[in-house]
Design a protein that fits this description.
Blueprint (H helix, E strand, L loop, with lengths): L2 H7 L14 H29 L5 H28 L5 H4 L18 E2 L2 E2 H20 L8 H24 L5 H5 L7 H19 L15 H19 L8 H29 L4 H15 L8 H26 L7 H19 L11 H5 L2 H34 L6 H6 L1 H6 L7
Antiparallel strand pairs: 1-2
Helix pairs in contact: 2-3, 2-5, 2-9, 3-5, 3-6, 5-6, 5-8, 6-8, 6-15, 8-13, 8-15, 9-10, 9-11, 10-11, 10-12, 11-12, 11-13, 12-13, 13-15
C-alpha cells in the first residue's frame, strides 16, 4: 500500500484527512484487539514467565511483568506516544523521534479519527505494544534484579529506547526506517528484537544468579507456563491481526499465517526435543509456540501460507539453538530465555520477511520489493533495519541501565535476599504457604 495510506492508518493526527469516516466494525475490532494485546502481558506473559521461575520467586516475577505493564503504559500516555507518532520540529529530528507535540495527548480530540476508528483507540492499542516490549526483558533478569531498579528502568527505557524505535519503523513519512521501506507488520524489530536484546544486555550487566549454572533451577509449575503460552497465543490475534487496523482482508491474512506458523513451530520444538533429548516436554511445546508467534509477527500480513510454514519452522529452530546451545557456549544467564526466544526468532522473522513476502501482494508497504520487485534490495533494507534497531537498543539500554542503577543505589538484590527468594524478601508474600 502507499506510504500516505500507511501514515493515515498509523493515525498521525497532523495528517488526518477531513474525509475520514468512523466505521463501527473497524472500531469494534480495534477495541477488541487492544483488549487482546493487553491480556498478553499481565496474564499471558506473566504466567509464562512465572511458571518457569523457581517457586521462591514466582510472585516477584509476576510483579515485575505486571509492574512493567502499568508503568510503561502510563509513560506511553505521558510522552511515549508523542515521541513515537507525533511530528518533530525539524526533518532531521523526524528521522529519529516524533517530537513532543502530543505530550499527555495534547492536541488530540476524542473525535479525532485514525482512518476509520478513533485516535484514542490507536493510542491505547499502541500503548499495549510498548508495555509488553519492556516486560519481555524482565525474563532475562528475574530472581536477582531489584524491583525498584526495574521499575525505574521501565519508565526511562520506554521513552529513551522504545518510543524512538517505534517511530523509526512505524512513524510514517519522514521516519528513517519507514522511509527506507523496512517491513515490520506487527513488531518483529520494534517489539521482539528490541525487548529480547534489552533483556540480554540487562542479564550481562546485572550478572548471573547465585549458583548459576551449577545449581539446579527447576521451574515452579510448568502448567502455569503452558497456560501463559495459550493466553499469549490467544492475545496474539489482537497483536497481529489487529495490526491490519481494521476488520478487513489483511486481518484475515494475518490471523491465518499466525495460526499456521505457531502450530508448525510448536511441533518443530517438540520433535527437536524428542530427537535430541528423547523427551517431548510440555515446556518445550509451549516455548516452541511462543517462538513461532514471535517469528511470524513481522511477516504476518505479507507472506503466503507456505511462507508462514517456513517462518514458523525455521524461526523456532533458531530460537531452539539459542536456548539450548548459544547460551551455554557464551555463558550468559538469560533466566527465562528472552533473548533466545524473542530476539533470535524476531531477527529471523524480520529477515525472512524480505525473502518470503509475496512481491505482488497489495498489502506490501512501499519499498524495493513493492516498487520494483527487487527482493535483494528488500532483504538489504531488512538487514539495515535489524542492524539499526540492534545498535540503538544496545546503546540505549546500557545508558538507561546506569541511570536506573544510579537512581536506586544499585541494581542487584543482596545475597541474603536472593537466597531467601524475592517473593518474601521483596514482595513480602509467599507463592505457596507450606
Amino acid at each position: 500500500m502507499k506510504k500516505w495510506l500507511v501514515a493515515l492508518m498509523l493515525a498521525l493526527p497532523s495528517l488526518a484527512l477531513a474525509e475520514d469516516t468512523l466505521d463501527t466494525g473497524d472500531t469494534a475490532w480495534m477495541m477488541m484487539s487492544t483488549a487482546l494485546v493487553l491480556l498478553m502481558t499481565p496474564a499471558g506473559l506473566a504466567l509464562f514467565y512465572g511458571g518457569m521461575t523457581r517457586s521462591k520467586n514466582v510472585l516477584n516475577t509476576y510483579a515485575m511483568v505486571f509492574g512493567a505493564f502499568v508503568v510503561a503504559f502510563v509513560v506511553w500516555i505521558i510522552a511515549g506516544y508523542s515521541i513515537a507518532f507525533g511530528t518533530a520540529e525539524s526533518a532531521t529530528l523526524q528521522n529519529i523521534i516524533g517530537g513532543f507535540s502530543h505530550v499527555l495527548l495534547d492536541g488530540i480530540k476524542w473525535t479525532d479519527l485514525s482512518g476509520t476508528y478513533p485516535t484514542y483507540v490507536f493510542v491505547a492499542f499502541q500503548g499495549t505494544f510498548a508495555a509488553i516490549t519492556v516486560a519481555i526483558a524482565a525474563g532475562s533478569v528475574i530472581e536477582r534484579m531489584k524491583f525498584s531498579t526495574w521499575l525505574v528502568f521501565v519508565a526511562v527505557w520506554g521513552v529513551v529506547v522504545y518510543a524512538p524505535v517505534a517511530h523509526m519503523v512505524w512513524g510514517g513519512d519522514g521516519a528513517y526506517l519507514f522511509d527506507a521501506g523496512a517491513l515490520d507488520f506487527a513488531g518483529g524489530t520494534v517489539v521482539h528484537m528490541n525487548g529480547g536484546l534489552a533483556g540480554l544486555v540487562l542479564a550481562i550487566l546485572v550478572g548471573k544468579r547465585a549458583g548459576y549454572p551449577k545449581s539446579a533451577m527447576k521451574p515452579a509449575m510448568v502448567l502455569l507456563t503452558a497456560l501463559g503460552a495459550a493466553l499469549l497465543w490467544f492475545g496474539w490475534y489482537g497483536f497481529n491481526a489487529g495490526s491490519a487496523f481494521g476488520a478487513n482482508a489483511i486481518a484475515g491474512v494475518a490471523l491465518l499465517t499466525t495460526t499456521i506458523a505457531t502450530a508448525a513451530a510448536a511441533i518443530t520444538w517438540m520433535l527437536a526435543e524428542w530427537f535430541i533429548y528423547k523427551k517431548p516436554t510440555l515446556l518445550g511445546i509451549a516455548t516452541g509456540a511462543v517462538a513461532g508467534l514471535v517469528a511470524i509477527t513481522p511477516a504476518a500480513g505479507f507472506v503466503s501460507v507456505g511462507g508462514a510454514f517456513i517462518i514458523g519452522i525455521v524461526g523456532t529452530l533458531f530460537a531452539f539453538w539459542g536456548v539450548t546451545a548459544l547460551k551455554k557456549k557464551l555463558g550468559y544467564d538469560d533466566s527465562l530465555d528472552a533473548f533466545g526466544i524473542h530476539f533470535l526468532a524476531g531477527l529471523f522473522g524480520a529477515l525472512a520477511t524480505g525473502l518470503l513476502a509475496v512481491k505482488d501482494n497489495d498489502l506490501l508497504w512501499d519499498g524495493p520489493l513493492k516498487e520494483s520487485g527487487d527482493r535483494v534490495g528488500q532483504f538489504m533494507v531488512q538487514v539495515e533495519s535489524v542492524v539499526v534497531v540492534g545498535l540503538f537498543t544496545l546503546v540505549g539500554t546500557v545508558i538507561v541501565y546506569y541511570i536506573a542503577t544510579a537512581l536506586t543505589g544499585g541494581s542487584r538484590v543482596s545475597e541474603d535476599e536472593e537466597v531467601m527468594g524475592l517473593d518474601e524478601s521483596i514482595q513480602g508474600e509467599r507463592y505457596m504457604n507450606n
